[in-house]
Amino acid sequence: MGRFSNADHPRDPAGRFARKATPADLGNLADLAAQTSPTPPALPTARNERYVAAGDPSTPAATLTALAADDEVMVRGRVAENPSTPPGTLAALAGDPELTVRRTVANNTSTPAGALAVLADDPSERVRLEVAFNPSTPPEVLAGLAADPSSPHGTLIALGVLPADPAERKALAEDESTPPEVLAGLAGDVREFVQCAVAENPNTPPETLTRLAADPKKMVRWNVADNPNTPAGTLTALADDVREFVRGSVAGNPNTPAEVLDDLAADHDLDVRWKVAFNPNTTTQTLTRLASDEHDGVRAMAEAGLPDTPPDRVAALARHETQGVRKRVAVRVGLPAGVLAELAADPNEHVRAAARANPGFAQPGVAAHAGLLTD
User: What share of the chain is helix, strand, coil (3-state, %, to 5)?
Assistant: First the structure.
């Protein structure tokens, strides 16, 4: 699979690949027509006749240039397709307002390099894909498309930047060593499971996660909401998601701002409120509200996080039936040695790990009390 160095292909201030060609390089059809023939050629009046002439390789260059300014899109498209159309005329058609015309120019092997460079920055993914497939496209333009995170995944596959096999793309999306620009390309994959893998990867750049947060597929948004690298602003937007499990992941994300957690504490979904109570960013004020929640599990989780919960209640919570509550108790500061030792020997591995990571576990006698040796 190919790789392109960003250092070799500088970007403009907007983050797009900085190409040397600009729309000003495309030329003007009226000027081209005057240069090609001092006397304007006689054109057929019937549309079908102009259409046939526009696609005929034997049509004179001056006539093709004149037909390139035709009012009919189908006629201009045939000129754009004609291998005999002069390069300057094709360059001018690269600036045509109609997508179908620009796409046809991008596919024409006679299109000059400068025009292809302009079309490589076209707002349409279809046009950029045609540029990627055109054998006349210069290597530096292909390199720019490959390095550009806005390039569609189809373009990246065509260029060999991404593998054609969806399973290989998924493995690449899951790999934490995959470069950020490749993850950005994979974010636009047509396969949902590839997008989900990108959204779940903890090294996916925040800007890519923000783009995926607007995806219409709920599973993609869910993985974004769960990613610890998702920025606070994106999580704030996802806190209003229509799916409860997306809001629940926002409630459990360590990057979610305290004010957002306070709003989510009033969510109608039990799991959302429970995760708010578990989140270390949740304020004491919000936890106090949740300690009066209608559901026992939410109340217990909130009490486990409140600093002023009475010691006897903390000891009872350390034996709670829900492992999440016990884990929340295990991270408390100043736990009695007996309670911490009990949690360090908990049947659940996550509770045990949290207890052993507690600074109090290093105090003399705690590990021995638990019948354990420190790692």
Answer: 60, 0, 40
Q: What residues does 11 pair with on adjacent strands?
A: 17
At 287-312, the pLDDT tens digits run 999 999 999 999 999 999 999 999 99
User: Which residues, 6+ apart, have CB-to-CB distance to 163 below 8 Å?
Assistant: 1, 157, 169, 172
End-to-end C-alpha distance for the chain, whole angstroms: 42
The mean-pLDDT minimum among 81-85, 182-186, 283-287, 312-316 falls in: 182-186
Question: CB–CB of 177/213 below 8 Å?
Answer: no
Please give the biggest Cα pair distance in the chain.
103
DSSP readout, 162-192? S-SSHHHHHHHHH-TTS-HHHHHHHTT-SSH
pLDDT in tens, 141-189: 887 777 666 666 666 776 666 787 889 889 989 999 888 878 888 898 8
CA distance 19 to 4: 15
Residue identified by tokens 């569609």 is 152
Residue 128's alpha-carbon distances to 99, 147, 340, in angstroms, are 11, 13, 61
